[in-house]
Recover the amino acids of this structure.
């Protein structure tokens, strides 16, 4: 639920759209969860962990087997070497990691800069912390920030620069020059970089570059990721953060009073996943890229203008060429018009900027091929 301006509670757009999909039988391309299970080795490792009795509280930092696997993963893919005992914390998904980081690192009146559109939990956590939320626009079709706008947004009042890369909801990836500018601004204004990288392995034609690998970044960067997206286990809620121990210890003081610990038998299973061969990681990205291409082609055939997704589960389509200026209204009618559910991009922006994204729709392509084919065929009816 969300607290409206008048103090009443209202459902989030995601709850509303998922309920609409359930009530109408429409294909749910709104929420970003896969409809296929992850790798057999990972699933079997979870079953084995339950059988082996790993069903009680894990250590507050997470089981060593997972922390060590996270450290090896960071070194294997990015050349980073976080200490598994001091610079890695396991969390209840990336959402808890981000919440704990924001609540721990900011005081009332501090400023947090995000890129807009933004994942909805960012705004909720910033508001809960008492901080002021500043945004930098990502505009269609490329969804890259204007560097001058970014320089103006980050000031001496900025405590956190929150980066989501690859980006949800746009599917964009930030270029090296933007990442370098973020590091430069963090140093200039003594800010902390918190980076949400849950789609790190789900990129298309580009290699993910963690901001923590850039010169001068590690000492002021908290990197957040999770196993849910990579291994199609979103319901397990196993995430983590890595970074300098000075920052993580402060965050841990808050995290221990949120969930404390979580997902005991799933932690060793995600450790198995992180150790899978390179072929697995290339394969999941390749399969997802094919699904992106399938749905993107279907959306174009239906009459949408489509931005190219460079990573994540999502693609953004503009409904204006079809005569729909109000994507929120369209999304509420899509089950009737095409038997499909999607989410308007206006759900990811502040009220003052909703008009800038009014005709844009986010579709999730992390579904079975037959589901995407059926959705594409049904959406084609919009152009008739």
């Amino acid at each position: 639920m969300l607290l409206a301006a008048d103090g009443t509670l209202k459902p989030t757009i995601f709850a509303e759209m998922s309920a609409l999909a359930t009530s109408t039988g429409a294909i749910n391309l709104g929420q970003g969860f896969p409809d296929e299970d992850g790798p057999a080795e990972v699933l079997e490792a979870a079953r084995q962990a339950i059988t082996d009795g790993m069903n009680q509280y894990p250590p507050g930092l997470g089981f060593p087997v997972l922390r060590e696997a996270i450290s090896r993963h960071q070194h294997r893919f990015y050349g980073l070497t976080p200490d598994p005992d001091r610079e890695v914390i396991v969390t209840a998904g990336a959402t808890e990691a981000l919440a704990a980081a924001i609540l721990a690192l900011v005081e009332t009146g501090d400023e947090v800069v995000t890129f807009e559109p933004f994942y909805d939990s960012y705004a909720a956590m910033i508001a809960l912390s008492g901080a002021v939320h500043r945004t930098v626009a990502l505009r269609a079709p490329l969804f890259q920030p204007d560097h001058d706008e970014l320089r103006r947004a980050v000031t001496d009042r900025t405590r956190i620069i929150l980066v989501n890369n690859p980006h949800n909801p746009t599917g964009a990836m930030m270029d090296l020059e933007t990442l370098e500018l973020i590091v430069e601004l963090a140093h200039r204004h003594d800010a902390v970089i918190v980076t949400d990288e849950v789609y790190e392995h789900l990129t298309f034609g580009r290699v993910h570059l963690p901001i923590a690998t850039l010169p001068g970044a590690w000492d002021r960067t908290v990197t957040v990721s999770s196993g849910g997206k990579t291994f199609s286990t979103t319901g397990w809620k196993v995430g983590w953060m890595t970074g300098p121990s000075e920052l993580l210890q402060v965050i841990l003081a808050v995290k221990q009073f949120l969930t404390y610990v979580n997902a005991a038998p799933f932690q060793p299973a995600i450790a198995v996943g992180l150790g899978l061969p390179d072929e697995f990681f290339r394969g999941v990205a390749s399969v997802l890229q094919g699904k992106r291409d399938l749905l993107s082609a279907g959306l174009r055939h239906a009459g949408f203008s489509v931005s190219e997704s460079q990573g994540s589960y999502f693609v953004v389509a503009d409904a204006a060429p079809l005569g729909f200026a109000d994507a929120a209204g369209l999304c509420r009618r899509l089950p009737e018009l095409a038997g499909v559910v999607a989410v308007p991009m206006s759900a990811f922006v502040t009220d003052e900027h909703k008009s800038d994204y009014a005709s844009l729709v986010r579709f999730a392509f992390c579904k079975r091929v037959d589901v995407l084919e059926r959705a594409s065929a049904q959406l084609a009816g919009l152009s008739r």
Notes: The longest helix spans residues 278-302. Residues 183 and 217 are 6 Å apart (CA to CA).
